[in-house]
Amino acid sequence: MVASKLGFVDKCDMLTLNVRGCDIRYTDAGHGTPIVLLHGFPLDRRVYTDVAARLSASKRVICPDLPGFGESRCDRDFTIASLAEDVRAFIDALELGPVVLGGLSMGGYVAQAFAKAHPEALRALILIDTKADADNAEQKLGRLKMIDLVRSEGSAGVARAMFPKMLMDEKGESNPIVAAKLKQIMLDCPPKTIERACLAMKDRDDFNDTLRALAVPGLMIVGRHDAISPLATAEKIADAMPHGTLPVIHDAGHLAPLEQPAEVADAIEQFANIV
Fold first, then answer.
1. Residue 144 CB contacts under 8 Å (≥ 6 apart), including other chains
2. CA 135, 141, 142, 148 torsion: positive or negative?
3. pLDDT digit of tens for each residue in the chain (275 aa)?
4. Which of 81, 132, 190, 239 is the most buried (most CB within 10 A)?
5. What is the DSSP string of 146-160?
6. What does each C-alpha distance from 104 to 2, 9, 95, 141, 229 come to in angstroms?
7. Which residues pair with residue 25 across a beta bridge?
């Protein structure tokens, strides 16, 4: 069971909630300002284990597996917009009220879709190693090629193809423990979920107007060595948000919460203290 691998498991509640026909598995720890953190692709809530452990000392931190990912059981197609509706139903079921919502990479797309559809449910928005732009023609083609890859080689093929761009260094030699954890998380992602996520990301909206219209504080966190969503992209996002700030995590790539959890937790905590 995935949950047994979490070092954080002894410090938080491991729970399941049925949302819109899906059994959503999540962790819920701490008290205070509710912070909901959404993982990226092809990942699950384990990317936030160490961040949540640190943040939960002063905040309530909730980390769900999105439908079809990790331990969340859901056998249906989805879009980025429908995932945002799942998140809204999840937040409503927990009676959280306006939340600080954060999203990493694909989770950032979902968080932006949530901000577009449900601005009244936001207390603040945190985006981590993500983009606001929709896919261009070349990127859409790349999504379709990844679908072909997962159909022919399964999750292992996708993990092998994606790994060199995920961390600060291509082989993960600077932090072998993190590299091993990332590989396992990617291998655990179901092939059908990978396929559905590729289609969802390919057809997602452009969120630049959403960010410019944001009425709550925004935080954009980026790894300085992010090869997928580089610093220039993060600067554009931070500039678009009327109240945006941009902490840069120096020794991190595309997965700052996994690579440098203490720095990411500190940035989120400082931000949450003032919203």
1. 198, 202
2. positive
3. 233 333 444 445 679 999 999 999 999 999 999 999 999 999 999 999 999 999 999 999 999 999 999 999 999 999 999 999 999 999 999 999 899 999 999 999 999 999 999 999 999 999 999 999 999 999 999 999 999 999 999 999 999 999 999 999 988 888 999 999 999 999 999 999 999 999 999 999 999 999 999 999 999 999 999 999 999 999 999 999 988 899 999 999 999 999 999 999 999 999 999 99
4. 132
5. HHHHHHHHHHHHHHH
6. 20, 21, 23, 22, 11
7. 16
Tokens matching residue 80 = 């980025």
C-alpha to C-alpha distance for 215 and 138, rounded to whole angstroms = 33
Residue given tokens 């083609």 in the structure block: 141
Partner residues linked to 219 by β-bridges: 126, 245
Contact at 8 Å (CB) between 87 and 107? Answer: no
Is 217 within 8 Å of 243 (Cβ atoms)?
yes
Task: Show the tokens assigned to 119.
Answer: 């601005």
Alpha-carbon gap, residue 66 to 56, rounded angstroms = 20
Which of 252, 216, 261, 258 minimizes the C-alpha distance to 234?
Answer: 252
Which DSSP state fits 254? S
CB count within 10 Å of CB 94 equals 19
- Residue 102's nearest CA partner among 242, 269, 233, 262 is 269
User: What torsion, rounded to 10 degrees, do the Cα atoms 231, 138, 125, 178 define?
Assistant: -60
Q: Determine the Cα–Cα distance for residues 69 and 107; give it in Å rounded to an integer.
A: 12
CA distances from 1 to 25, 108, 112, 189, 257 (A): 12, 27, 31, 13, 23
